[in-house]
Amino acid sequence: MTRYRFIAHAKNVYPVRLLCRVLRVSHSGFYDWQQRGELPTAKQQADARVTELLRAAHTAARGTYGARRLTAELRADGHLVNRKRVARLARLAGLCGVHRGRAGKRGRPERQAAPAPDLVRREFTAPAPDRLWVADGTYLRTWEGWLYLAVVVDAFSRRVVGWSMSDAFTSELVIDAFGMALHRREPAQGQLIHHSDRGCQYTSYAFGRRLRESGVLASMGSVADAFDNAMAETFFASLKTELVYRRSWPTRHELEVEVFSYIEGFYNPRRRHSRLDYLSPIEYEARYRSSIPAA
């Protein structure tokens, strides 16, 4: 307890001037301290600094990060913080992450012959980049109608390597997404598996021909079973929770711009994944490449 605080507690029993004389402080200094109010402690000042860092990190992450990712973000910037402290300060500051709702019911599979075998069997892991890509499409609501999005995700790093958007879910949409992935990554022929569901866009002759021309092996899960394409479904769940469901979208163009910004400006380069040691997809791939001995 400081001398000024002791005087404040004891002044109802003893005169202030007497207390100040005994404790060897000036009574004017005590009255100045009392008028200013008690100064924050070192711990309170440190918490205030961490809170400001959390606010900045939360804003940079589009308001999506919870305590675990905020902790990883601050640690990556060189700040020694633990998750319990981050959770406490974030809660006091009203900084909340976004969370997914419970999964819906599984669809009933339709009877249909598989145009390609399932080479993945729900093992969405890969030893290196460009060994396994997973692809899927989804629809996003706007006031103008649906906006359809097709993506290609690298199973090694969860990086979205190809994407395309349109007002119709056609074979051209998934071909465009696959074409972007090919152009960006230039995978070696015969070493890459492309896994999707059995939607008509992926079973179309045009898409199958594109795969064969590129030397990519086709793999397809069962019909209407999200678990057979869980990695792509996980990306869509993150996109919708962290971006789409947080507001309404008057036009397709406005949502297109924001989806592009989410994928290329946040998800690939910055969003931290618990399965990637809280690195972003681009950071995870960079760490992998830096570990490969030079030829």
In short:
The chain has helices at residues 3-10, 16-23, 27-36, 42-60, 67-76, 83-93, 171-185, 200-203, 205-214, 230-242, 252-267, 281-291; strands at residues 132-142, 145-154, 159-166, 193-196, 217-220. It is α/β, with parallel strands linked by helices and 295 residues long. Helix 5 packs across helix 6 (83-93).
Distance between the termini: 65 Å
Overall morphology: elongated
User: How many DSSP helices?
Assistant: 12
* Oligomerization: single chain
> What portion of the residues fall into strands of 2 or more residues?
5-15%
Q: Low-confidence parts, pLDDT < 50 over ≥5 residues? A: 102-114
Q: How would you characterize the largest beta sheet? A: 5 strands, mixed
**How are strands sequenced across the largest beta sheet?**
3-2-1-4-5
Average residue-wise pLDDT:
81
Radius of gyration: 28 Å
The number of E-state strands comes to 5
Structural category is: alpha/beta
SSE topology string: HHHHHHEEEHEHHEHHH
Helical coverage, percent range: 40-55%
Write the layout of secondary structure elements.
Elements: H1 3-10, H2 16-23, H3 27-36, H4 42-60, H5 67-76, H6 83-93, E1 132-142, E2 145-154, E3 159-166, H7 171-185, E4 193-196, H8 200-203, H9 205-214, E5 217-220, H10 230-242, H11 252-267, H12 281-291
Parallel strand pairs: 1-4, 4-5
Antiparallel strand pairs: 1-2, 2-3
Helix pairs in contact: 1-2, 4-6, 5-6, 7-9
